[in-house]
Design brief:
- The protein is of the alpha+beta class.
- It has five helices and eleven strands, in the order αβαααββαββββββββ.
Length: 202
């Protein structure tokens, strides 16, 4: 199943006008469930690694800044359930390039788990010494998520703060170089496919 045209239009319009966009049902309930049934997600804290801060030689683990666990996705060996999402990202790249006259080329994506009570303090996704990340993309996998569970993505915009709940199937896309954001602590485990669209081949 391809991305619906109205979803593509919403993303392109939101990026052009506000620097971000939010669309629901980017993945269907069934697609989310199939991803969650993968062994890696079922036993995420056994398979995933503690996420660090910074890039390559500058990378460090600092639980006072971020508390998530991640596993990078290899596009070639990814299971079919994940490839459905990667295919949609490729569609999105092609459409955004055409609609906004960009030259985006590829995406890098990891599976992400935030254990209960963990967070990621306010930050920008683009590295100081590497500006190839152009758009941040997060697709949430949290079934039955309620506002009382917390775990919002908080974006800091010129007009004020914008909170987005991590509802299953919801995609958030925003400018990596412009929008500072943080992940608020949640009262339950929080899962997503998190990545960046690049202006080079990953």
């Amino acid at each position: 199943m391809n991305i619906a045209q109205h979803q593509l239009d919403t993303i392109a319009d939101g990026l052009a006008e506000n620097g971000y966009a939010v669309v629901d049902h980017f993945l269907s309930e069934d697609e989310v469930r199939r991803i969650l049934q993968l062994d890696d997600f079922k036993n995420a804290l056994l398979h995933f690694k503690k996420a660090g801060i910074g890039k390559s030689t500058d990378k460090q683990i600092n639980e006072s800044i971020r508390g998530d666990y991640i596993q990078w996705i290899d596009k070639e060996t990814a299971p079919p359930e994940i490839k459905v999402y990667l295919h949609r990202l490729s569609e999105l790249i092609a459409f955004v390039n055409q609609a906004l006259f960009l030259s985006l080329k590829d995406a890098e994506v990891h599976m992400t788990v935030y254990p209960e009570g963990t967070y990621y303090k306010r930050h920008l996704d683009q590295f100081r010494k590497d500006d190839h990340r152009k758009l941040s993309v997060i697709c949430y996998l949290n079934e039955g998520w309620q506002e009382s569970h917390g775990g919002q993505l908080r974006m800091y915009l010129p007009e004020g703060e914008k909170d987005v709940l991590p509802v299953a199937g919801r995609l958030v896309c925003f400018r990596s170089d412009q929008i500072e954001h943080e992940v608020i602590a949640g009262t339950r485990e929080r899962m997503s496919l998190t990545g960046w669209i690049l202006d080079r081949i990953a």
